[in-house]
Specification:
This protein is 8% helix and 47% strand. The chain is mainly beta and 494 residues long. The chain has 2 domains: 66 residues, no CATH class; 386 residues, Pectate Lyase C-like (3 Solenoid), CATH 2.160.20.10. The protein is elongated, with a radius of gyration of 28 Å.
Amino acid sequence: MKRRKFIASALAAGATAGYATQLLAQSKRQELNLSENAGDIYISLDKNYVAKNNVTDLQNNSIPLSDWIYGNIRSFFLYLDKNKISAINNSEPVDVTVELNRAMQDGVPIFLPNGEYIITNSINVGITSGLVGAGAKNVVIDNRGNDHAFIFPIGYDRGTKDFFGFSLKSSTGSAKDKYAFYFSSAPSGKLEYSVGWRFIGIELEGKGMGGGWYLQDCFRVTIRDCGASALSNGFYLAGSVVQLTVDNFVNNGDNHPETTLGSYGVYMGTKKYNDGNGIKMPEGINFINCKFVRQDIGVRALGLYVQFVNTEFDYCSKIGGLYAGGDKVDFINCYVASTASRHNDFYAFIIQAHAPHTPEPILVSNCTINMQKNKVSGYKSYGVLLSGGASFLSGARVDNCFFRGDGYENCIFANRVDGVIINNNTFRVKGENIKIESAKNLTICNNYALGNYSLPKPGPAYCWIITGNSGSFSEVDLSQANSSLIINQGLFKS
């Protein structure tokens, strides 16, 4: 069997497969001297022992010990003394800060056997290092320090480096404003990248640790099939984060700690560089099949070509999706639901202008908004807010969305918009479904409403297309409207 097949088989076998030093400690079948040729010693993938290669039942389902020690993956037990190995095998938590830092500088993936590992300071990851655990239920890393758990380096290496199959917590609660995985930035404000990291099958316990991933100055990062509980902030993206994919991430944010930032499923922001690159923002960002539960704000979205697809912002207390600027930000087939008690006004989506006199193509499409009536009186709740502020918002589109629940002030509220499209939405809500306070160029077509529409008096420069909608419209005086105004509802006085 070729070496790559050995490695793939070893990883697939998981915790039952084995790691050389631990199996040696457990085995009573044969005493082996590691000074012997490691290529002549084989590790069984389905039987809990090691043996010389003349044992016939090892030949077809085993890997050479040399592949563990010198090859593509290396057991962490090779860095520990006998006392620590024995303690881990006896299910005792062990401080491995020094040893894990040393292992992370050796430039190879490190295999973590079953056990609980304590770290008291940050682990500095080497540019080509990886960390492969025997599964999130079997391998626990406890950050008892007051800093980030893992710090990733700046350095251009395009090869994929995996962090896989373990859980991470902070039992002391001393890292509430820190992150599980923190990406460094280059000194003196330069733009340099960290490349090719992949995180798979990791579980985070956030009660004592505020954040999951702090990403900056990196590209080709993939986070897949990970989960968390009680995280205040799942992801922080700062500056030039390029080609990030997050697929199937779930955070149940119940009882998350209070942090300086607040509570966001995803926070995205700009960053200024001093080497001529100026201000940069995230680019090519995809969140797919994710669920953020009980955050104050589901996402603060900002960047170039940013997509949230099949993503839930459930039981939010303030905002589901907040557009904070950029170019081409999409919310597609997303779900927003509010908490029952909200000590503030609530918005499922806030889409505000950030580039005066420039179209901002923001898409809210096929989304579902499920509003609970607020048990706290004195506050209003909105579905989608479209606002131009001091300028006008142009290029936004709300299409094929479903509004349900109770307690809406308005399902869609638009003020100072120009070139906004509201089409094909379904409102299973009574009251004011769509309210327009000020709109120059506006399209409202083929919406199905149980409630009503409120429109202002159009000025001479306004151009509206309003047709094919169900529901009732307020009376509108069209006497001074532009001749290009197209209204086919039959509900307006002229």
